[in-house]
Design goal:
Strand 5 and strand 6 form a beta hairpin. With about 110 residues, the protein is an alpha+beta fold. The strands form three sheets. It has a five-stranded mixed sheet, with no helix packed on it. Helices cover about 15% and strands about 30% of the residues. The termini are far apart.
Length: about 110
């Protein structure tokens, strides 16, 4: 989705067709992607039996809010054990592997 945005920069009027790079336009949520870093993390459940998927994304600071976590899951950006997961509160147990934005989390 491209939008033509007009803005002033140093007294000159310029046009931009790529709205994602304009300082005066914040695109709706799914129009940006995270950089892939291929980092592996471990999450220890300790005394708990499971953790909901959206809570894990927040705790691991892969998203800023619970709403963002839910949207990312809805837009099929999260994989659990190699399959795309759309259940926001999917119960993750020991041995599950979550992949999101180039990050890999192993539940211990």
């Amino acid at each position: 989705m491209f939008v033509c945005v007009k803005f002033a920069l140093n007294g000159l009027t310029q046009f931009s067709e790529h709205a994602l790079k304009d300082a005066y336009f914040r695109p709706p949520f799914p129009f940006f992607t995270a950089t892939t870093t291929n980092t592996m993390h471990e999450f220890d459940l300790r005394d708990h039996e499971f953790i909901p998927l959206n809570d894990l994304l927040k705790i691991m600071q892969l998203v800023e809010t619970g709403g963002e976590a839910n949207l990312r899951i809805t837009y099929r950006e999260v994989q659990v054990n190699g399959a795309v997961e759309t259940q926001k509160r999917k119960k993750l147990r020991k041995g599950d592997v979550v992949e999101f934005g180039g990050e890999r989390i192993v539940i211990r």
